[in-house]
Amino acid sequence: MKALSKTGALLLLITLQNLFTTNVMAQELKNPTLEDLTPGGETYRYAENLYGLQWWGDVCVKPTVDTLYTIDPKTGKESAVAIRATVNEILEKSQAGKLSHFYNVSFPWKEKPLMLIALPGKYITYDFNENRITGTIDLKKGAANKDYCTANGNVAYTVDNNLFVNEQAVTNEPEGIVCGQSVHRNEFGIHKGTFWSPTGQQLAFYRMDESMVTQYPLVDITTRIGEVNNIRYPMAGMTSHKVTVGIYTPANNQTVYLQAGDPTDRYFTNISWAPDGKSLFLIELNRDQNHARLCRYDAATGELMAVLLEEKHPKYVEPSHPITFLPWDSTKFIYQSQRDGFNHLYLYNTKGELLKQLTNGEWLVQEMLGFDTSKKELIIASTEQSPLQSNLYRVNLKNGKRTPIGNAEGVHRAQLSASGRYLIDSYSSPTTPRNIELVDTEKGKTHRLLTAANPFTGFRMPTIETGTIKAADGVTDLYYRIIKPADFDPAKKYPAIVYVYGGPHAQMVNNGWMNAARGWDLYMANKGYILFSVDNRGSENRGLDFENATFRRLGIEEGKDQVKGAEYLQSLPYVDANRIGVHGWSFGGHMTTALLLRYPEVFKVGVAGGPVIDWSYYEVMYGERYMDTPQSNPEGYKECDLKNLAGNLKGHLLLIHDDHDDTCVPQHTLSFIKACVDARTYPDLFIYPGHKHNVIGRDRVHLHEKITRYFEDHL
Q1: Which residues of the chain register pLDDT less than 70?
Q2: CA separation for the pair 225, 217 (Å, rounded)
Q3: Three-class SS of residue 114?
Q4: Does the active-site annotation cover 211?
Q5: For the chain, what percent of residues have pLDDT higher than 90?
């Protein structure tokens, strides 16, 4: 044997050292567990964040547990302005309570050094320059839905089903009538039930009479003898609640109600005040949800002053945003509409005359962040860059010119300062967990506040790819995400799992961190599965035609598109075409069940969580928007009722439901089980007691372990 030269020996030694180092590094890397990947897990790993960032005028406020900082957006300079120990000393002397951290204090007065502190049963205003309490408001026991008026310091809130302002009762209603709370099951952009006028002299509020709505029983099993908890749940085609809008004046303790006529089978949405507080605007929508009217009411009398504009569509109109007045011109407002196929902005005057369309194109405005009052420009977030992204722009209201703000990558979530000059911009991209910057919207200058580290450094992570396939119509592009194991071997054959939602107002694939992959998806990929998601027609951020292609036949066109995704998987040389599973929750639970029943030759195993089985069991607002009523669309309801397909079940199907689900009531799953018994098919069932429409907290780890075991056993 020929001896190695000195150089050869040295090279061999270096090679061996490199191999040893690589092997050690590989051994040090570990797979993330469900505890690492699941919210509620003991070791849950997530991208670092700065919680409670907000504006005090044009000054950025950064709270921590013990110290409150301000940041000058011009220089990025940080200064401590309050210490929790000092604040608590003042609070305790006044017997006002104790602040456990600074994260939920707010700074609504842009020119005053005051912070608003919400404590149990009270609000405190605190001067952080002089370290003194400047005001206290006590609330009644059980106060909820609190709405603080920064104009005058009054607080609206509810106790049980009645409305109060400070300690004065505004309403005194019997059971079955609810005041001051969100109505119409939080559809149409509704998320609250009280609306202060600009000066705080009046309060608009919702009054919902649901006494005529059939009660649905949910059973609490934590007591020795189960207790019935009834909820008011109007199902599609059935009698719904009646909503009216009141206007309360604290100065004289008087309430007038809008004279809107009979509220039967009508929706009142998107309440907003005129800048002078003399009139109230709202959008009235018929029960068919295909005719909307923007109405103006006299705030003093409740009389209808004018119908400013009307909007109709043969399928549905979906008003989700109140009008927004220009800060420099109280005679003009911005109205949002999908009338040209995408959500865009329109400028009107208070006579109801259309002045101009402010934005247009085959993309949509996602959010109006506010105005730069000095430039008379609007700041928006939109999908103009890509349907997978949310990027920021200035919009010149004179000529419609749009100017990008910040970087062009990823998904941006932003807060605008009082003047509109600065933004707190939090964004992520497929490879950026989270960056937070202060952005000068005019000059483009930025100050980085946070660069979040990759929370999975030191872990073996799967690879993520995105692309497009054609929808079942052969024309429309659909975006997909595919996740491969960290030790992916193209020569192997892997089982695949499709994670699906598929319904309106949701998007599974975007250009945010890891392309919006969920923790369970990553976990299953590392266990040796190919994980796949595709946003079918009917999902979000692609325009009205893309969404309403599923009208009156929910689950049908969506299913066809998901099959195209499965066919793409089957075409891949590393996917076992005979081992494709599917999982989803809520609308995704409906899709999972439907795919196993309609395409048993494609999908072999499914786990359906909180599934809609029969759309006639679903609530009025959402169900009738997309399906019409069972009376007017009997064929559609029959076609989409999965009980009628129970005999088609050939693969393994696990249904999971929460026993207190008040969104998709347990009747869906139980009725499907009965249909399967009658049809002699054999799904599996698991119930999570005490949860509503999803499983949260520590139990969520159990949920995903349960789902994992089902696929491990059967796929």
Answers
A1: 1-27
A2: 15
A3: strand
A4: no
A5: 96
At residue 462, the 3 state secondary structure works out as coil
> What 8-state DSSP symbol labels residue 667?
H
Residue 373 lies in a domain: no
Among 88, 122, 138, which residue terminates a domain? 138
Number of H helices, E strands in the chain: 11, 42
- 168-206 b/e (C-beta count within 10 Å ≥ 16 → b): eebbebeeebbbbbbbbbebbebebbbbbbeebbbbbbb
Q: What is the dihedral of CA 356, 361, 362, 365, to 10 degrees?
A: -60
Q: What distance in Å separates the CA atoms of residue 659 and residue 672, rounded to the nearest whole number? A: 15
The reply to whether 332 falls in a domain is no
Which tokens sit at 364?
């949509």
The DSSP result for 524-579, as a single string, is HHHTT-EEEEE--TTSSSS-HHHHHTTTTSTTHHHHHHHHHHHHHHHHSTTEEEEE
Q: Are strands 144-148 and 304-312 parallel, antiparallel or unpaired?
A: unpaired
CA 193 – CA 176 distance, rounded (Å): 16
- Tracing tokens 């408001």 back to the chain, one arrives at 137
pLDDT digits (tens, 9 = 90+) for 399-433: 999 999 999 999 999 999 999 999 999 999 999 99
What's the pLDDT score for residue 694? 94
Which among 220, 218, 216, 302 is positioned nearest to 257, based on CA atoms? Answer: 302
User: How would you list the strands of the sheet with 122-127, edge to edge?
Assistant: 114-119, 122-127, 132-138
Residues 6+ apart with CB under 8 A from 277: 197, 198, 199, 201, 202, 299
Q: For residue 183, what are the contacts with CB-CB under 8 A and spacing of at least 6?
A: 190, 193, 206, 208, 241, 243, 268
Residue 27: predicted pLDDT: 56
- 79: CATH: 2.40.10
Number of structural domains (the chain) is 2
CA-to-CA distance for 311 and 633, rounded, in angstroms? Answer: 23
Which residue type, as a one-letter code, is found at position 342? F
Q: Length of the chain in residues, anyone?
A: 715
Strands of 402-405's sheet in order across: 365-372, 377-382, 391-396, 402-405
What is the domain extent for residue 108? 47-138
Please list the alpha-helical segments (H only) found in 376-531: 519-526
Q: Establish whether 693 is a catalytic residue.
A: yes
The Cα 398–Cα 594 span in angstroms is 50
Question: Considering 661, 668, 691, 704, which one is annotated as catalytic?
Answer: 661
Q: Whose structure tokens read 């109140």?
A: 322
408 part of a folded domain = no
Q: Are 283 and 321 in contact (CB under 8 A)?
A: no
Q: Quick one: pLDDT at residue 28?
A: 80
Which one from 428, 533, 539, 586 is the annotated catalytic residue?
586
Question: E strands of 72-176, at which residues?
Answer: 78-83, 114-119, 122-127, 132-138, 144-148, 155-159, 162-165, 168-169
CATH number, domain containing residue 482: 3.40.50.1820
pLDDT digits (tens, 9 = 90+) for 38-96: 999 999 999 999 999 999 999 999 999 999 999 999 999 999 999 999 999 999 999 99
Q: Is 175 helix (H, G, I), strand (E, B) or coil?
A: coil
Q: How far apart are CA 122 and CA 96, in angstroms?
A: 8
Q: Catalytic pick from 101, 693, 702, 714?
A: 693
Answer whether residue 215 is part of any domain: no
The answer to whether 611 touches 597, Cβ cutoff 8 Å, is no
Name 420's Cβ contacts closer than 8 Å, sequence gap at least 6. Answer: 370, 371, 372, 373, 374, 375, 377, 379, 441
Six-digit token pair at 394? Answer: 């200035």
- Helix, strand or coil for residue 623? helix
Which residues have a Cβ under 8 Å from the Cβ of 21 and sit 6 or more positions away?
Answer: none
Q: Which of 138, 163, 180 is the last residue of a domain?
A: 138
Tabulate helix, strand, coil % of the chain (nearest 5).
20, 35, 45
Question: Contact at 8 Å (CB) between 416 and 400?
Answer: no
